[in-house]
Amino acid sequence: MTTSAPVSCLGRTPRADARLRLFCFHHAGGGASFYASWAGRVPPGVEVLPVQLPGREARFREPRFSDAGEAVSALGRELAPLLDERPWAAYGHSMGALLAFALAAARLREGGRGPEAVFLGAYAAPHRTPTLPAPDRYGDAELARALVGFGGLDPRFLDRDDWLRALLPIVRDDLRICASHRRAGLPDPDDERTRLPVRVEAFAGTDDRLVDPAGVRAWGRYARDFRMACVPGGHFFPREAPVPFFDRFNGSLHRILAALDPPPGVRC
């Protein structure tokens, strides 16, 4: 069973009978392919829906976002029918964590159906000193070396000028999204009354050279129910050390599924 219309940022039509839709938001400079293997790693009943931002991969001809508020508003409009239709959760990695959390905040602020949980990976809370490079601080060569430094770019590509010319403009616009987080409609970390009434779980890589656990832990000032776990691996730990990450992540997904209504045909 499927919904009636495809959604461009998903690249396909989601199923209408999934028990839990898991919307996944990719990192700066990345794309939905980061989540290509996730469908086979999560529990049955969870539908993995990688969100593809415009300007890359299958949407490379479309204008890119460069502002967090614009990106969250556009994603919220496009995904709203799906978010209201079925229970959902969100996972965001690095830049995607900002988008996932801001989308959840927008849904609750606007009276829409909120998520069962929001999962954040490898991203410091927005009020912390930025860990990602400033979008216009470095020239192309310096920015490329910075990406290599924290594991975001294979060093072999430093000599591929043609490839870098295609990648670096995408990275810069994504970094502009991160730098504009104040326009994303986030709660005030200094006001406990604004914390989201949603379970938020954050993950930090023990070998992450870009984001330290203290920065990730600071997300606790944005949500009333906050948990954090350190998992093996660097900045891209779901890809570098998937087994320990999915052991922890799937435990949380199983708890969400257990709390939902039983699947069709199951009687209590």
From TrEMBL:
Belongs to the thioesterase family. It comes from the Bacteria. Residues 21-241 form the Thioesterase domain. InterPro entries: AB_hydrolase_fold, TEII, Thioesterase. This is Thioesterase domain-containing protein. PANTHER family: S-ACYL FATTY ACID SYNTHASE THIOESTERASE, MEDIUM CHAIN, THIOESTERASE. Signal peptide: none annotated.
